[in-house]
Amino acid sequence: MKEATIHIVDGKVDDIHFDGQKGVGIDAFLLITHRRDVEEGHFLAFGNSERVGKMLYNFYINCLRNDYWELGETLELVARDILEVAQAARGRPWPQEKMRMEPIN
């Protein structure tokens, strides 16, 4: 793949094109980038929270199915960190460990 184009029409995701091919309709996407040489990126999500959650879960399952074990394990660490932050935000203890995924601003 050399190019991907996502069209957003009237504030709603419409379709995606790969390498100039005919577009296919989509109802959700999640874009996460990391910029070169800086600890910044972009976070762009279109679609309802249930759909985006299913996409993240399916991404994890596909990592396991396709032998991307390192990426799958990284997602597991991130999921654990998310749960710990959520528990702390709700007044539950937040265990501090040596290895923690650091947020990218």
Supply the key terms.
105 residues, alpha+beta, 3-stranded antiparallel β-sheet, two-stranded antiparallel ribbon, 2 helices, 22% strand
What do you see in this structure?
- This protein has 2 domains: 1-47, no CATH class; 48-105, no CATH class.
- Helices cover 36% and strands 22% of the residues.
- The chain is an alpha+beta fold and 105 residues long.
- It has 2 helices and 5 strands, in the order βββββαα.
- It has helices at residues 49-65, 69-89, and strands at 4-9, 12-18, 24-25, 29-32, 43-46.
Structural topology:
Elements: E1 4-9, E2 12-18, E3 24-25, E4 29-32, E5 43-46, H1 49-65, H2 69-89
Antiparallel strand pairs: 1-2, 2-3, 4-5
Helix pairs in contact: 1-2
Order of helices and strands: EEEEEHH
Strand arrangement, major sheet: 1-2-3
What number of domains?
A: 2
Q: Please give the largest β-sheet.
A: 3 strands, antiparallel
How far the N terminus sits from the C terminus, by CA atoms, comes to: 28 Å
Q: What's a concise summary of this model?
A:
Helix content is 36%, strand content 22%. By secondary structure, it is α+β, with helices and mostly antiparallel strands. The radius of gyration is 17 Å and the shape is globular.
